Amino acid sequence: MPDMNGLLDFVQTPAGQGLLAAAFGAAATAGRGGPVNTLGAAGLSGIAGYSAASANALKQQKAQMLQQQRQAIPTLYGKGADGGDTFDWKSAAALGLAPDEIAKFAQLPRAGMSKVARTVDIPSADGGKQTMQYDEYGQPVGQAIDSYVAPQLVDTGAAKQFAIPKAGQSFAMGMSPGESAANARGWAGIVNQHQQNATMQDANNVQREAGRIQIITGPDGNSYRVDKGTGQVSPIVTQTGTPFQDGASSRLTEFEGKSTLYLSQMTGAENVLDKLARAATPARVALARSPYTNALASGEAQQIAQAQEQWAEGFLRAKTGAASTPSEKAENLRTFFPVVGDSDAVIAQKKRAREQAVIDMRIPAGRGAEQAAQRTAQPQAPMAAPQAGAFADPDKEARYQEFKRRQGQ
Question: Residue ranges of region Disordered (predicted)?
Fold first, then answer.
């Protein structure tokens, strides 16, 4: 007996039903009222009923599948590692959901959230920058969030640093090392200028005072101060209150007094040198001039060194009117006193030069020359006026001639 299950399965397919519909349709068009016609009409009715039943069954099957999907979809939601909602799209695909349906179900957790339509930058409480979000209806979405602000390089003069700009923020300005150095030099110059101005003002005051004041000696031999501006005359008294007596006949001028002092120092030094003569060599004397080798020099060498420096100091003060520098004193000592390597002729020539210098100093001392220290030994005859080229150093010759010119010689 043929297998009817296979035949029924074929009849249930669209192809089988199509063949049956064609066969029954042909039979239904046969002679009206005949058995074939009746069978064909009945077959068509049966196929129509079967198709309707199949359609109903398919609808019911589809409705059951939808019901299963609706029941299973809530179970596909879960929580991710970050606490956010997740959707198991693989299981949803296995349930027969279409891709667009899967995408819609995955977005459902966010359906109640507000969408940001625009952002507005606002200042924070500390002067920084924050961003506020608003939805399409103008309602804020969440809280204000801190916004990124690019750091900017700030040059404060003394340093450079990166800082995040904030409202009301300020930086203490300083000076760069170069500006600090220039500022220090500027202030030093101002202080120096103030000192110079003060010195000049004092000098001007002294000059104005000197121009108005005249010191005279009265018939009684006392000194009086005369203010030429007011004509007022007042006596000059000493610290004890007694009148100061300085007769014009015996009083030396300031220049004479200073020259007499220097002449006395030079003469006293020459007296020491006359006594010691050649008690020490120039090398020994040179040792006495250094604090490091002074102990190696003899006592006579130390005395000679002291006398030479006393003579040179007095002579230089008379020439320049100011304290001598170490280099000037050293040059003066070399000019007038023996040094290592000098011949006897040079030593004798230097001695004659010192004698001439002492004689020349009597000119500016004037009346004070008689009050200065006297020589204990008979000096040699003064040197003749030096001829051009007499000194080995032309500069020394020029300085010597300039000194004589200033003294009126």
Answer: 367-393
pLDDT given at position 387: 47
Write down the residue that tokens 């000493």 correspond to: 238
User: Residues 6 or more apart from 47 whose CB is under 8 A from it?
Assistant: 17, 20, 21, 24
> Using CA atoms, how far apart are residues 206 and 198, in angstroms rounded to an integer?
12
Query: What is the chain's percent helix, strand, coil content, to nearest 5?
Result: 55, 10, 35
Counted residue by residue, the chain has a size of: 409
pLDDT of residue 27: 61
pTM over 0.70: no
Please check whether residue 154 is in contact with residue 170, taking contact to mean a CB–CB distance below 8 angstroms.
Answer: no
In the chain, how many H helices and how many E strands? 12, 10
Beta partners for residue 217, in sequence order: 223
Q: Tokens in use for 282?
A: 């120039």
Q: Which long-range contacts (CB under 8 A, 24 or more apart) does 97-104 make?
A: 97/69
At a CB cut-off of 8 Å and minimum separation 6, what does 273 contact?
Answer: 304, 307, 308, 311
Tokens of 288: 């006495």
